[in-house]
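Aim 2 progress update. The chain analyzed this quarter is reproduced below.
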Amino acid sequence: MNISNKLILGALIVATSLFPSCTIRQVENQIRSVTVTGTGTVEIENDQATITLSVVTKNWDVVKASQDNTNRMTAVQEALVKAGIASDYITTSGYSIYQESSYQNGRNVPGQYNVTNQINVLVKDVTKAGSVIDTAIKAGANQLQSLTYSVSSTDAAVKQARLLAIKQAESIANTLATSSAATLGKVLTIVESQPNQYGAVSRNVYAKAVALEDAATPASGGKSSVSISVTATYELQ
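Predicted structure tokens:
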């Protein structure tokens, strides 16, 4: 090995010992960004009500209990139709027959047969919900399970809530960018969660109903809320 080759080899050995982890890498351009979440909520007037009620009959003879129930439920449905409820808006939601029993002197004692026929009644005019309940009770319904108000269409409210959510997300992102000595750039990604609708009025009761004479059942429709959230990522400049 000549002198020049020895000098080159020596220089490489020295460089390696001084910089053992030295590597050459190309630095990739990384986009600075900020990710925020915005929520928009819109309240809308409820425009329909769903009433769930039942006819419950009892008898020691199951056939008589069932027939009595049929007669009374038929009367209830006819009264509702006469009051202006479309027959398509009256649907059966449950029907059951069982024999009651009690525990006496160490043994089960069979009781009467219990027949329950439950229906849902959709009322398109919320101002009539109270009178519909009264009509059903007078005709023979003797249990009221629930009265729930809702909105028939939420399309417009969903659109408005979406715009509010995006506006809030942009406002938050702009505040974060400004406080970080940056400016807000274009939207990189935006993801929307499923809209949620919350009924403001839901009354659940389980009690025997009695026929009313002059008194009217008070009912108020109230409002529902539609809420949408979006998660957006903005570029920082």
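The longest helix spans residues 155-179. The CA atoms of residues 64 and 168 lie 64 Å apart. These observations will guide the mutagenesis experiments scheduled for the next reporting period.
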